[in-house]
Structures are given as structure tokens and as C-alpha cells.
Amino acid sequence: MSVPSNASLAHCPTRCGDTTFSYPFGTEPGCFRQGFELTCDHTTRPPRLFWANSTTQILAVSDAPGPVGWSVSGLIGFNITMTPGTSTYTRSWESPAKGLYINHYYNAMYFVGCNFEVVLFDTGTKVFFIGR
After folding, report:
1. What whole-number distance in Å separates Cα of residue 30 and Cα of residue 130?
2. Strand partners, 58
3. What is the pLDDT of residue 40?
4. Tens digit of pLDDT for each residue in 5-45?
5. What CA–CA distances, in Å, run from 12 to 48, 52, 62, 67, 69?
6. b or e along 22-56 (b: 16 or more beta carbons within 10 Å of the residue's beta carbon)?
7. CB within 8 A of 103, min separation 6: which ones?
8. How far apart are CA 117 and CA 74, in angstroms?
9. Position with higher pLDDT, 18 vs 1
10. Contacts of 24 (CB under 8 A, 6+ apart)
11. pTM here?
């Protein structure tokens, strides 16, 4: 797989709102590698960056590859309204791109309430993590 030349990427946007990015990430055809497509929502002020056509907002993209690859900071949030008489809720999330790696050392989950059990499960590797 070859990297496009700087000349062929010259027309490619490298900013959306307060977030900057560069190849292999991009928002226009010819500006990103397959699986690295981003979408810039210009209807908000400032514009917000999302992973492809998902609802996963991208907060930052690293300028250089790290030890495991490119670093992307995203925002994933859910509210679950508790219904009286219901004791079990299931909420799942599918990653917006194949090969997305979630590093458990640099991620955090916050919950407000009582008696939570959280199970993170990777269907590809069958690895899971349980937190209470």
C-alpha cells in the first residue's frame, strides 16, 4: 500500500473546527486510507469531527504514529433512563471502524448510580473485561 504524494493531497482539508488531522485520515474522497474516513459537521459552531458516518465524535488525532499506531481521542456517551421495576439494561456499541483498538490503560468510564456491572467484550478476540 503506497502513501499518496504531498502534491496529490494538497487539496485535502486538514482541519475541522478545533481538530487537525492528516493522512491517512481525511474527510474527502482521495484524502484518506480505507477505514480512516472522517466526517466534518459544518452545521455546528465550531464544526465537529466524526468517525466516518457514525455518531462517534473525534476530539483529537495524533500528529505521529504511536507504539500501537495512530492515536485518536473520541467521545462516546450514553444515557440510560432507569425504568421502575427493571433491573437489567443492556447497551452495546459497535466500533465505527474495523481494527479499532481500545487501550484499557488510557480509557475511563464514569457511572452515576448503584449496583453497576459493566462487561466489555471484543467479539473478534473473545477477550472481555468486567468492572463493578
Report:
1. 41
2. 49, 74
3. 96
4. 777 888 999 999 989 998 888 999 999 988 889 999 999 99
5. 17, 16, 17, 26, 22
6. bbbbbbeeebbeeebbbebeeeeeeebbbbeebeb
7. 68
8. 23
9. 18
10. 3, 32, 33, 36, 70
11. 0.61
